Amino acid sequence: MSGAEEQMQQLRSKATELLLREEWRDSIQLYSELIDLCQSQISNTHQHSDPDHLSKLHKSLCVAFSNRAEAKSKLQHFTQALNDCDQALQIEATHFKTLICKGKILLCLNKYFNALDCFKAALFDPQGNGNLDIVNGYLEKCKKLEFQSRTGSFDLSDWVLNGFRGKPLELAEYIGPVKVNRSEISGRGLFATKNIDAGTLVLVTKAIAIERGILGGQDSAENAQLVMWKNFIDKVKEAVTRCQRTQLLIDMLSTGENEAGLEVPDMSIFRPEIEENGCSNDQKLDMDKILSILDVNSLVEEAVSAKVLGKNSDFYGVGLWILVSFINHSCNPNARRLHVGDYVIVHASRDVKAGEEITFMYFDALSPLEKRVEMSLSWGFNCRCSRCKFEEAVCSKQELREIEIGLEKGVDVGGAVYRLEEGMKRWAVRGKGKGYLRASFWAAYAEVYGSDRSMKRWGRRIPAMETVVDSVVEVMGSDERLLKVVVEGLKKSGGVVEFERAMKLGRGFYGKVIKKQALRTLLEIGINDKGY
Question: What is the mean pLDDT of the chain?
Fold first, then answer.
C-alpha cells in the first residue's frame, strides 16, 4: 500500500467514525481532505495503466461526496449537500445511499416531484434490494406530500381524534388561490384570486425559524421572552447564512418604512420549485435591516386569530413565516390560522370573494371602537378598515357612548344590549352595520345569553342568540368565543339545526383540515365542559 493510499484509508476511517458519532462539522472537514486527495490521485493515474485502481479511486470519491452530503444535510446546508450529491451521482448514477440522501434533502426543500424521481431511481440500485421497505416508505411519503401540495387536501382528523397524541400528519407546503398585491390597508397584502368558502385553506407554510419556551411570572416571563427573542434572532441569522433563497425571501419583507415603494413579488418566488441559487455565506448580512424586518413581521403562536394544536399549546412561541407576513390586520377579518408543529395553516374564517384582501385581526376586534383604536396605535398603525370607518360615524352618537360607559360601570348588561338594539333601529343601522356594532359589544351579548336570569328578563326583548351570532360571523368570521356561546346553547336546547350551526362555526374556526367526525368530537368535548 502506497503512502497516499494509507493516508486515504486513515482519513476514510476517521471521517466515517465522526459521521457515526454525529460530529458533522469535523466529519465534513475530513471528508473534504479525503475528496481533495482522491481527486489528486485520480488526476495522477493514467486510465490505461491501472484501470482497477482508478475504479477504486472513483468509488472512494463517490462515497466521500455522498457521506459529506449527509453531514451537510444534517446541518441543513442543503444547497451544498445537493451539490455533493450531484458530484457523487456523476460518478455512479444509481448510487443508492446518494439517491436516498438527495431525495430526503429535496423533501426538506418541498420539491416533491424531484424527490420522487430520486427514490424511484434508488429502486434500480442492487444495494437497495435489502432496503425496499425504506424506499417504498419514502415513495409513499412523496406521493402524499405532492398530493397535498397540488390539491390543498389536508386531513388532521386522526390526530385530533387521538387526542393530539403523537406526531401530526406531516404537512406539505401549499399556496392556494392567492397573490400579493398593493393594499389599501397598508403597503402590500395577500388577495384572493377566486371565491373561497369558509374553512377552505389559503396556504400552509413552514417557519423559517421558530423559538418556544415556557413563561413564568411577570418578571421571569419578561426575561424569558428576551432570551427567546435573542435565540430566535440567532436562528433566523443562521437560516439566512445557510441559504441565499431564504435571505432573498426575508429581504423582500417590510421594515415598516417606505411601504409604497416596496416591490410586489410574483407568487412563483414563494413556490418550492424555484431553483436554489447557491449559499450566501460570502455575503455580508445587514443585521439592522433583518432586526427591523423581524420586529414588523414576526408572529407569536398564541394570538387572538390563531389556535395552537397539540403539545406546543403549552409553550409561548415566536416565529417567522414569509407569506403569512403579507397578511394585514382588519377589524372585520376573514381568515384565521392554526399552528401545527412548525407549520402555519391559514384558512378562510368566512366566505371570501375574489379580489378581497385576506386579513387577520392582530388584536381583539370583538371590542368597542375606542379600545380598538388604542390597541392599533400600540401596534404602530391606525386602522382604517370599513368597520372602523362605519363606527367612527355611528359612535359620534352620545347614546352609544353612554351604553359603553354604563357597561364599564357595571349596569345591567341585558338592559345595555336592549338599548343598543333599540338604538340601531332608530339610527337605521342595517346589514353589516348591525354585525359591526354587535361585534363591538359582543362581551355584553355573551354575558346575557350565558345567564338564565338575564335571559328570563330580557330574552323576549332582544334578538335570539342565533341571529346575533350569524350577523357577527358575517363580518368577523368564526371565533372561539362565538363558538363557545353556541355550544353552551346546545347544552340547554340542542337540536339538529343548532348542532349544524355549531358545525358551520367550527369549520370556520378550525378549517376544513379537520373533517366532520373529528369536528363533531371537538364540539362534543366542548359540550361536555372539557374545553376545546
Answer: 89
Least confidently predicted of 78-82, 168-172, 411-415, 463-467: 168-172
Domain-located, residue 279: no
Q: Indicate whether 362 belongs to any domain.
A: no
218 confidence band (pLDDT: 50, 70, 90): low
Specify whether 134 is located in the same domain as 222: no
Q: Residues 256, 298: one domain?
A: yes
What is the strand order of the sheet 316-320 is part of? 209-213, 316-320, 299-300
Phi, psi at residue 47, to the nearest 5°? -60, -40
Give 463-472 contacts, CB < 8 A, sequence gap 24+: 463/421, 465/489, 466/498, 466/501, 468/438, 469/501, 469/505, 470/501, 471/434, 471/435, 471/438, 472/366, 472/435, 472/438, 472/439, 472/442
d(CA 499, CA 486): 9
Same structural domain, 91 and 163: no
Listed residue (138, 132, 133) closest to 118, CA to CA: 138
Domain boundary among 307, 328, 357: 357
Same domain for 330 and 386? no
Phi, psi (5° rounding) for residue 170?
-65, 135
* Residues 344 and 397 placed together within one structural domain of the fold: no
**CA-closest candidate to residue 385, choices 333, 463, 446, 324:** 333
Beta-carbon contacts of residue 5 (< 8 Å; ≥ 6 apart)? none
